[in-house]
Amino acid sequence: MKALSFLFSACLFACIITSCKKDRPPSSNKSIDSLQLLKADSTAFNPDDITITMGSGDSILVSLPAFTDVTHLIPVFQITGKTISPASGVRQDFSTPVTYTVTAQDGSQRQYRIVVNLRGAVYFGCSDNFFYAVDAIRGKQLWKTAGGDFSYSDPTLANGIIYAGNIDNNMYALDAATGAVKWSYKTDFTIESAPTVANGIVYFGNDKAHFYALDANTGELKWQFNTGGNISTKPVVLNGVVYFGSDDSYVYALDAGSGGVVWKFQTGGMINGSSPAIANGTLYIGSRDSYLYALDAASGTFKWKFFADNISLEQSSATVADGVVYIGGWYNVQDFTKAGSLYAVDAVTGTLKWQALNAVGIGSNPVVAAGLLYITCDDNNLYAVDINSHAVAWSRQILANGASAAVGGGVVYCGGGGSHNFYAMDAKTGAVKWTFPIGSLGTSTPVIAGQPGL
Length: 454
Hints:
The protein is built from one helix and 41 strands.
């Protein structure tokens, strides 16, 4: 009887439990608890290379190094819920945001949007005979390519290719993802001119007075034009015309397709590193004769010139922003104890609006972003100048040795050859975000690609 009673009780308890399970409603929990993202070959990323952040709402943000192939990544999920679609462990193209749906036991759903961003890269050449690509956010080397001195010719990025001149007389085309040399073209002398790429053609000059137009894909010579002096300026291409300056004191405007002369204008001195800037149909360029010139870009007709009080303007390229032309003054070439300043000139009239950084000597190019002007000077400092108050917002001693800065994503990038470091600094405060060691006394102006502000 006791055994039968016990059996009856056990059965009754089991029925009660079973009844309770049937009465419990299906769970409504539905969430992505964790995400691991694998490469296309199913291997994991280096932990230093990947960042996964649960964003606001139901977004998941993934940051990866520049040039990562995002078209075949493998997401592996841990979820709370019944299913996830698309399925975990299945290769996916993340070149655009992908939406994943988690379905709960009760059939309700929650969607997550996964966004994969590639961090930017910063490229620059050095006098240590290397050309570098560095992660713009973390300062980690992506690749470096050996060659001659790349520090004199500022690089240009176009269609996934870096173009950079070298004192070994070659113009190089480097794969932006790997640094592999796609082609090189040997000229007859050193290249200081920064290349410009337009409509599939690379334009640049060399220090033997020759100006070249090469096929951007193959490096094949399309045409060549000879001047009477070294060509160190970066060309500008606009409306089928290529513009540049030469040590022979002339500004040239050539037909970009054939190399034929459209017009030329003679200044009163050599044009060395001062590359032309064009805004609203007017070309601006500095000369050793202490003048900043404004010329009609279409005809070469003289508009006005600004006199910098016997200070050469041959080294700094003009920058135009909101109707003001900014240019750095180098030195009085008859008396190098007299150094130049930063000049802000009215773009329409040529009158001086203001000047700053007095008598520091400037051989670099100004760059303007978000109300600040950035420029390196011969007192070893990089300055950020407020263009409205004309006051110095911040400065940092980096020993740039004439290198110019570039700005992107709220960060200023500049080589400090004298300190053997390449710097990334907060654009508003000047605080150093990272430094990258270089065995070099000089660097080119960097070029930024991708999304440096992630």
